[in-house]
Design a protein that fits this description.
By secondary structure, the chain is an alpha+beta fold. 20% of the residues lie in helices and 32% in strands.
Length: 193
Amino acid sequence: MSGAMQTEPELSIAGQFLVAMPLLADPNFHRTVTCLCEYSSKGALGIVINRHDARLTGKDVFSQLKIDYTPEAGAVPVHLGGPVHPNELFILHGPPLIWEGTHEFQKGLALSNTMDLVEAIAQSRGPEKYIIALGCAGWGPGQLDFELTENTWITAPIDREVLFDLPVDSRWETVLARNGINPALLSGTAGHA
């Protein structure tokens, strides 16, 4: 063994849901569930999974990119992934994880934004489960850690049914309920005992 000092591995909440508490008044995050894809001393990045623009579908994205698409892919809703990089496309997806630039942040879950994946989704040859999002959520170094100490957020294990299958408007309440929290009992103000 060398004389170099070993350090403890950094605790990470990447691969968790980040659930907004009612006191979070920022309209970008009020009552949101964010899938946290990256978390380190350099900051954090995630995709809000419970907001979409009812007028925006895959058809709009694929048309803008001049990609041919199937009717099924054209009908897929587009999520509003967060206020950072609002004109960039992010794909949160399950297997297969074979696409260029795939960032697997949890076993069987990845974040990608390369054209090979977008084209495969447009042709209905992509992953079975995915979310197309415009924009992402991002935090600078220490910012999310501070917000967590202020009880702005709670973390919860990723629930793939919530992530890909439940209606968007029920995801916040469902994540809280599945983690033993009754949303009706949450206070809209912060307090300390």
